[in-house]
Specification:
The structure is a single chain. By secondary structure, the protein is an all-beta fold. The chain is built from no helices and 11 strands. Strands 2, 4, 5, 6, 9, 10 and 11 form a 7-stranded mixed sheet that branches. Strand 4 and strand 5 form a beta hairpin. It is globular and about 40 Å long.
């Protein structure tokens, strides 16, 4: 099992920035792909980005250029830097992890942190 400790989040003005962090423990970090998701009440959970151990990052197409993921394997930590925030970015943001491998499921989740962007 993997435990994910999430921190960050809060409030920001439109055009501002926030940085979320997620630290993993339990399973070897090198065996995990780390993801970020977000969810608005009443709506489906939305994929934000996924980071590989190698440093390769995939982003939701519409978020490219505003959101940036970084990863420090020595600290078992991944960050989500959110810039040029918009009110529609308001959501609960979740850190997630899945085993390395083709088609692996997202098995582990953080508790979520609220991000609120005011106009």
């Amino acid at each position: 099992q993997v435990q994910l400790e999430e921190s960050g989040g809060g409030m920001a003005q439109a055009g501002g920035s926030l940085r979320l962090s997620c630290q993993a423990s339990g399973r070897a970090f090198s065996n995990l792909r780390m993801g970020w998701f977000r969810q608005v009440p009443g709506k489906e959970r939305e994929f934000v980005a996924e980071s590989y151990f190698s440093g390769y990052i995939e982003y939701k197409e519409s978020l490219k250029g505003r959101f940036t993921v970084t990863r420090d394997n020595t600290k078992n930590t991944v960050w989500l830097q959110m810039d040029s925030l918009k009110p529609e970015d308001t959501a609960v943001y979740y850190c997630a992890a899945r085993p390395t491998g083709f088609g692996a499921s997202w098995e582990f989740w953080g508790q979520g942190t609220q991000v609120t962007v005011s106009s």
